[in-house]
Design a protein that fits this description.
This protein has 253 residues and is an alpha+beta fold. The chain has helices at residues 3-16, 20-26, 28-34, 79-86, 101-119, 129-153, 155-161, 207-214, 220-225, 235-245, 248-251; strands spanning 38-45, 50-56, 59-64, 72-76, 93-96, 167-173, 178-184, 187-191, 200-204, 229-233. It has 2 domains: 3-119, SCP2 sterol-binding domain (Nonspecific Lipid-transfer Protein, Chain A), CATH 3.30.1050; 146-251, SCP2 sterol-binding domain (Nonspecific Lipid-transfer Protein, Chain A).
Length: 253
């Protein structure tokens, strides 16, 4: 199995579907759809990554590995098989929950379709302020949760990871989303935190600037010159994280 397929599978399971946690909160249609769901779905790749999605009481939790109780298990013969499903070109092999296949096809697919809608913007869609906000949140969530996967398998990112030091980065969009990352040598963890505990903080002026920056439409140096982005603390930590972030477009469509 190629490194690219392995990384794509990890990003799909550990970063992309992580956005469903916020989707059920931010999108009124999906919020209404899932409000009475009580089901957990496990995505399992043979000799590869495992992730689970659980809906309960109107909320959603996505985690690496398994929940104690699983209603549906979707199996994939390889990372490539999983990636083809995410591209709409393959189907999983159900190992458990055969009676839920109708639910997956008719109901859960509405969730994944809406997730794809927010993750694949057009200039016209981004003119809507609510869409812009949600796309920015999902782009940031995908990026930071992809970091550990890419650092583990991508040769260039792995080299950068070996130079990471103990610290923490807080990415803060004013009046918008934020993310907190702990680092150490060959270690990145996305967790909870704030500017008071971070050794480095990136402050982004607003949602619009953040969206352009996360999508590569704003150069970091020009943004710093205009004070659209400010960096406080240990800038070398952000430099190394940035080198790994630069690898993400290779694996995320």
């Amino acid at each position: 199995m190629s490194i690219e397929e392995k990384i794509k599978a990890g990003v799909n399971l550990y970063a992309v579907i992580k956005n469903i946690e916020q989707l059920v909160i931010l999108d009124p249609e999906i919020k209404e759809l899932v409000k009475n769901w009580n089901i957990s779905i496990e995505f399992r790749v043979k000799n590869g990554p495992v992730a689970s999605v659980r809906f309960k009481d109107g909320s959603c939790d996505v985690k690496r590995g398994k929940f104690d109780k699983t209603n549906v298990v979707l199996f994939f013969m390889s990372e490539a098989h999983l990636n083809k499903m995410f591209d709409g070109n393959a189907n999983p092999i159900p190992l458990k929950g055969f009676t839920k296949l109708g639910f997956l096809d008719k109901e859960f697919s509405k969730v994944t379709d809406k997730l794809e809608y927010y993750l694949k913007p057009t200039p016209e869609l981004l003119e809507d302020s609510n869409y812009l906000k949600i796309n920015t949140i999902f782009t940031l969530t995908t990026a930071v949760n992809a970091l550990p996967v890419i650092m583990e398998f991508d040769p260039k990112a792995k080299l950068t990871g070996s130079h990471l030091t103990k610290g923490s980065l807080f990415i803060n969009v004013e009046n918008g989303p934020n993310a907190f990352i702990n680092t150490d040598t060959n270690y990145i963890e996305v967790t909870e935190g704030n500017s008071e505990t971070a050794t480095c903080e990136m402050i982004i002026k607003d949602i619009s600037i953040a969206n352009k920056f996360f999508s590569g439409g704003v150069d970091i140096f020009s943004a710093l010159a205009k004070q659209d982005i400010k960096i406080v603390g240990q800038t070398y930590l952000l430099d190394n994280i940035g080198l790994i972030l630069d690898r993400i477009p290779i694996y995320v469509n």
